[in-house]
Amino acid sequence: MATLLLGTAPLHAASGDEAITLRVTGEAGMPFSAECTLKSAGGERTISVAQPAPYEAELVGSGLRCRIEASGPIEVEIVKGGNVSRTRSAGGRIQVSVGS
Fold it and tell me: Residues 20, 79: contact at Cβ < 8 Å?
């Protein structure tokens, strides 16, 4: 599984910012693309991903919103604190978000 660590600031560096995990699973090697907006006390930034599943990214922020496209079955999970947002799709486009 590919893991991407984004952001060099320590966890909880700014008010409201926490660890956020983005996981994309599906058939091993199935390509997917994602366009995500990470919100934090420092503002917003866009994260673009285009690679095969499985994928995991560890982020720091107050919220994450993603639009993901895949040609086959996929499951997307975003975890922030005790909040989990999870969705499955047989393929196509899906949206998932957590936090502010």
Answer: yes
CB atoms within 10 A of CB 96: 21
- Asked if residues 28 and 52 have their Cβ atoms less than 8 Å apart, the reply is yes
Q: How many residues does the chain have?
A: 100
In whole angstroms, what is the distance from residue 55 CA to residue 50 CA?
Answer: 10
Strand order of the β-sheet with 55-61 is 2-5, 55-61, 18-26, 74-80, 83-89
Q: Indicate the domain borders of the chain.
A: 2-99
Write the pLDDT tens digit of every residue in 30-72. Answer: 999 999 999 999 999 999 999 999 999 999 999 999 999 999 9
Cβ-contact 11, 18 below 8 angstroms: yes
How are strands ordered across the β-sheet holding 43-52?
A: 43-52, 31-40, 63-70, 92-99
